[in-house]
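Q: My labmate handed me this sequence with no annotations at all. I'd like to see what the chain might look like in three dimensions before we decide whether it's worth expressing. Could you predict it?
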Amino acid sequence: MNKQLLELLDGANDKYPHTLEQQFPHIVAKIMELWGLPALNQYFVDLMLHTRAEPREGFPPKAAKEILDLSLISDQQTQTKKGTLISR
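A: Here is what I predict for the chain of 88 residues:
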């Protein structure tokens, strides 16, 4: 479990992207690199929408949900700036 990501999620274990971490660690690393930056929104879009010339397999449903959840949390934190508590 990535301690820094868990801290950004305010310790909310139920929001932690376990599937992404296990199956797509490079995506978790990139999300951590971009967290709090405007570029993160575009990264989420690129992950979830077909934006490449070559076809993609897509994500397993659980991983896709985790990406969506992280996107929503990031948006919530961005809108309220610092110190957002994650709704449980």
